[in-house]
User: Fold these one by one.
Assistant:
Number 1:
Amino acid sequence: MNYMPGTASLIQDIDKKHLVLLRDGRTLIGYLRSIDQFANLVLHQTVERIHVGKKYGDIPRGIFVVRGENVVLLGEIDLEKESDTPLQQVSIEEILEEQRVEQQAKHESEKLKVQALKERGLSIPRADTLDEY
Amino acid sequence: MDLLGDHEENLAERLTKMVIDNELEDPAIMQAVQTRLPVQHPGGLNSSIWDGSAVLRRIRGPLLTQEMPSVSVLDYALPQRPPQARDEERDLSERALPRRSSSPVIGSPPVRAVPIGTPPKQAAMPNFNQQILCPKPVHIRAPIQQRYPAPYSERMSPNQLCSVPHGRMSPSQFARISGLVSSPLPSMNPKLLQGRVGQMVSPASGFRAFFGAPPPPAPPSAQQQHPPCPGSHLQNLRSQPQMFRPDTTHLHPQHRRLLHQRQQQNRNQHRNLNGSAGDRGGHRNSHQEQMQKDSYANLMLQREKDWVSKIQMMQLQSTDPYLDDYYYQNYFQKLEKISATEEMHGDGPKKERTKLITPQVAKLEHAYKPVQFEGSLGKLTVSSVNNPRKMIDAVVTSRSEDDETKEKQVRDKRRQTLVTIEKTYSLLLDVEDYERRYLLSLEGERPALMEERKQKICDMYDNLRGKMPSQDRPSDDHFVQIMCIRKGKRLVARILPFLSTEQAADILMATARNLPFLIKKDAQDEVLPCLLRPFSHVLYHLPLGTVTSLLQQLANLPHNATALAPANLHLSAVLQNKVLELILFHLAGVSSQTELMLMATRELLRIPQAALAKPVSTPYNLLTLFSRYVDQQKLNFIGPLSSGLGVLLPLVAPCNSLLYQREGKGGCTVTVRITVHLCK
């Protein structure tokens, strides 16, 4: 039952399992229970999934109310296909450790890059320090 | 003596009156209160602020903004309550707080006790029932302008409606809240709905002016497929040149109909689901199962989903879909045309395309008047959504010529050209739109439209060629500047069909004169080929003399093509080649002037073989012409031909293949004859 052809609406997605990517990089998986005109979401039985390489870990979070402007994208999860994934689930501690290691490595390489550029007299402003508008 | 300065028995009366808030809406009651105003307490405290009507009005201040839905400017301005207005003037200077502008349309958005984003607490049904109960004839300002039921956001939420004290409501308040009742969708019964679809065009004249075509005769089935009816609205509403804001606070009847139908279907579905027999599809069963397992399902009620849908649908309303939603409307028209042509071929309707309904709503004229108070000095600076404040005082300073350096001048010139291109593009879009406007306009307006169109075409041409009037347009400079920019070339390609023959020829000549330069400049853009089609079209309509001069122009051009870097060689050569071919084939189609043909052929042969591309368009009588040519001027012709034998054969081949498709043996013999000649 298509409400309005040619448009996108979240009404069809209600009560289905969704993966939501937020602007700060978090990935949430939960059942979409309610929406409003700003695409604020209410997620039920939410799990925050952290991906590092081929591994992932789930942190159960409960009920989330997400403000619409912070959503990058969201998509419905096919429950049948959900299980056949090449990724390997690990425990929370392990994945957090992996994440920390990854962040550190990234930070190091970033530092090196900035250093190299500085030596050459260039400076690239970091994206998060730029103004949004 | 109490602080209120009133007699005690009156105080008790007033207090009881304060409780029954709703009745204060009624002017009759208000007047009654005022006539019983006590004598002001002489001297001492200025207690006039506590006078009866003022007290009561102040106390119900916040509620006022809710309960008085000003549905239209006219309503607000109607002198329904002159006594109140007069009172306010008197009291304003003594009040602590100035009275807020409560018009939702003019001025700041009103303060709301229940924020606008609140979904309805109770079912929306009671609301609609009330609409039937109390039909109020509505004053419609003009046949075109619409009155809709009270804007959703301004309506009292059903919760409040239902919790009216004592269950009473004064009829005037009732009617004002439910607003225009000509919304003809009271019932929720699907059968009634179907029966009433024919009556969809409301008795109120305002609606009839809006709906041009009758609503779809057969009510849409459960598939929710709505036949697109974009034209019906357009026929009745003409877009006005002024900036009018759309009245988007009300839901368009079409959309409301959609919503109700959906509600119907949902109810039917739920009813069916509950009594589902085993013959329902497996999908339905699994769906039901899933619903049973998921005990948290349907936390969001259907009513709430509809509410969100309603908001989304309201956002689709616009005053002029062709302005706001140009690409979708045009795209859908193209699709319809395609399906119409397919249908004509006897295949039957391919697929029904459901169009998103973007209904046209009336425009309301808004003249924002900031809130002013009598006797105050200065104006309030209120910046709101409807009246944004000017933030920056930007002043345009014109530069003097002396200060600029050479680079700046060059940059300015380029910028000037860019501006010209943009202006001409606007004109072009307008001109292209005239066809549609023509269809929508009345008979009397059409000559004026045609005049406008002609004027715009002239303006476009002037823009292209450089409006410096005076002499004979000695400089192509302006035009060449435009042609150096990618957008300019596309612009010229689009304008050419609209120009008259001489104007188009003029453009062609200018292009031909500067062709090498343009080719060089086009190396990066590679957009010149887009001009070929319109150029060829123009060529077909040109008189022979013009073509001759054009050809001479091309022939006299210094052959910069070979001087260019090898990378560009192919493209530029192809270009020149194509232009020459165009002319050649055109000549062939028109006449058989031998010298010209010779010249053209020679030019053609000068181009290296690798660059010889497929001709743009091949007239079928080319070979017959060649053969005639050969007979007449054997010697002259064979000379250059023999040198370019290898070159010409590829040229013949495509012509040949074409001929095979069209005429059987005739073409064959001609080919044979030519090859025979060539071999000699």
Number 2:
Amino acid sequence: MASSSSSWTQTLLVFFFFALPMLCTSFNPDSPSDRRVLVLVDDLAIKSSHSTYLQSLTDRGYELDVKLATDPKLTLQSYGSYHYDALILFAPKVESLGGNLDAAAISDFVDSGHDLILAADETTSDTIREIASDCGVDFDEFEKAVVIDHVKYAITPLGDDHSLIAADNLIDSTVILGSQGIKEPILYRGLGHIVNPTSELGIKVLSASPSAYSGRVGAEITDLPNVSGASMALVSVVQARNNARIMISGSLELFSNQFFESSVQQSGSDDKFEKSGNQQFAVELTKWTLHERGHLKTSNVHHHKIGETNEPAMYRIADNARYSLGIQEWNGKDWQPYQADDVQLQFYMMSPYVLKTLSHDGKGLYFTEFQVPDVYGVFQFKVEYNRLGYTTLNLAKQIPVRPFRHDEYERFIPAAFPYYGASFSTMIAFFVFGIVFLYHK
Amino acid sequence: MASTAKDARDLFSAMRNAYSKTPTRLKVIDVYILYGLITAFVQVVYMAMVGTFPFNAFLSGVLSCIGTSVLGVCLRMQVNPANKEFKDLPPERAFADFVLCNLVLHLVIMNFLG
């Protein structure tokens, strides 16, 4: 009996010993960098032609699963849980995705908070265009049209076809593009797209120059191009309200080894760069998309009256309140304190009665003190933080505020002294009048 | 124009003559009523300047003045010998009513004053 139970515990121990590594590499919300990435390609040659880019992901600890987009065994989820944390779609030609994948399944994938990187080129199919437009980005529908720029094209050893352009209109954001900044132009050959300018969630990261337009190579232009100029985006990102991040690039070759290593010179400029900015751009933007930068989390939201430590269930008018919270940023490996001077707290009931900028102590603790306004009702402590490139913070904590109880006023109100005086003087007048009236002859 | 001014002056002097013939007792009551009304008016002006903050105190002050004035008016009516309506009412009884009502009024005022 004893021997059989010990062998049973032995097998259990062996099972856990081998299962533990697998449990460690699954997605953990405490370390939000995605771990398992599915890369769909339409030609397995991409594994070698884009190997530098894919290697940069593997070097940072991601598990890549490179599969053909038409693979019939493809599946993103089973029984409600997803197998992958991010999806890279380097398959512009694919018409129908394999397995149980389609545009709707990929939309669901993004809606559940996972990230997506999508690249197109001049052979892009309708399926890929549909996926992109679900994300808020519209590729030019004109068939076989690519971005052409006769003024700012690239002069490289790869040839100087005017559809190969050297783009340098980058968005000015160190969160999205890294703190070092990209000085070299970026080689690009592919489609242009439009991000709706009124959209709050879509951001153009790399825009075309004002002289670029979307048209067929070598063909005469007979109609006004659908997409042109600086409003045409080459690479854009969308940060969804559930903080999923999507990168959409109109050029698959932007990520290729050839473009990474090529030298580049912009036409019309004398600067020749030994190496294009493609590798730095692709790697830094991927880091942002996969939540290695700009991902915030809040913790320890507290409020209390100054002088006490517990959170009251209700405040009174003219109480002094203190609100504090911790904000941290993920840097790919661990949580670092977030430093910013523009996080604001609203004490809100239909409109903010108090709006204060939180001060922080350098270690991620944000706090402020204020006096509760002279209005009673149900308020909220609201922190709404929406900055380019950072996850949105939307915190609200409800708290009622009551007026003074009538034994919390001063005993004799100075403003009412005339009334007190008048009442007493009337009584005295009555007394004097009584005497006069009675004893007058 | 001159005739209306003369008429107004004649009117005032006629009123003053008639009033001077009223008994002194009634004039004492009139002074008391006037004092009450002036005090009420002053409080209303003060409230218009400062706001209604302790509204109960304001009401209490104003109503005590107006209340005693009203009771004074009742006393005057009942004590006036020229008034046929109260010819059977002894003036002592009228005064006793006046005192009692004022006591109740001031009791209420003290409670409401806060």
Number 3:
Amino acid sequence: MAINTACNELGQIWMESGVSENAVSGHIQLIIPGETACFACAPPLVVAANIDEKTLKKDGVCAASLPTTMGVVAGILVQNVLKYLLKFGTVSYYLGYNAMQDFFPTMHMKANSQCNDRYCRIQQEAYKKREAERPKVEVVEVEEEEVVHEDNDWGIELVSEVTDAELQAASGTVPDLPEGITVAYTIPTQESPRGDMVEETEQSLEELMAQMRKL
Amino acid sequence: MSDEATRRAVSQIPLLKTPAGPRDRALWPQRLKEEYQALIRFVEQNKAADNDWFRLESNADGTRWTGTCWFIHELMRYEFRLEFDIPVTYPDTAPEVAIPELDGKTAKMYRGGRICLTDHFAPLWARNAPRFGLAHLMALGLGPWLAVEVPDLIGKGLVLHKERQRDEAAE
């Protein structure tokens, strides 16, 4: 997250990658501040694992090897970087890797206009201005990725212990994702704090620190 | 959340008002005050419930925190020192609490002693940031971790009570 914040502030284009702890999935992502979704724009994405429960000897633990999956994802990441720098092939905005079925979902997630990160939003404004000033260019390539809409349907949940109604209320904005990719969790939209807040106090920071020490 | 008692304890901790991280020169001192207030309140609540289990204090600008936590197991008290830094992207990212003296003794710990929290923690923190603060981190992160790990470590003989350590050293 720290790198994400720094890149948003600097307008630095970067790529990130990750591998799931159980080594059955991974992904790489190209992040262009203001244009594509930054790390904070949406909750962490999860590439569907499709683990067949019957093949697991221990609870939820699969025999997959973490260094192997990391090697695969590292290779894909470097490949994407080379394509970007040396301008060959098609650079993927997001490429997921489902090791169980060798499924590679791809997509292009646009930035979230309500992203938590202030600089992401600033970059988005700058991007919109740049796009408006640029002359129209004929787009020849076919977009394989799905178009993302902000106003929507509630994404696909992996595991849910709450009822559907509660889930809908608690979900908030979820990006429209292609098959095989979900969000790790959702963030509810309502702002109402459900507890007491700290009160106003006359004490200074030093007094509070001293109070703490005396406890 | 998995535990009713944890849920109750957390709901009594006051939420924080100022969404500021250590890089916000103007608002961080205010946030720090609120952190202290919430922590003091939480410790007082713990004392009242006869469940006082940690102390924390910070450096002058509140970016590095150290303290102790303890756990009572079979009438014996086991104490551990803990520490953490406030990350740059706080309060959106939670600090990583570390117990250096347990480094290497349990699988539920990253190198350097940073405790490994369950899958429940990250979504919970994300949903409630920035209203959650260090008191919530203690209640939801470190507390449950100690409750699960310490009895296990004691059972495996990886953690000895200080008295027994002294006896062994004397022999």
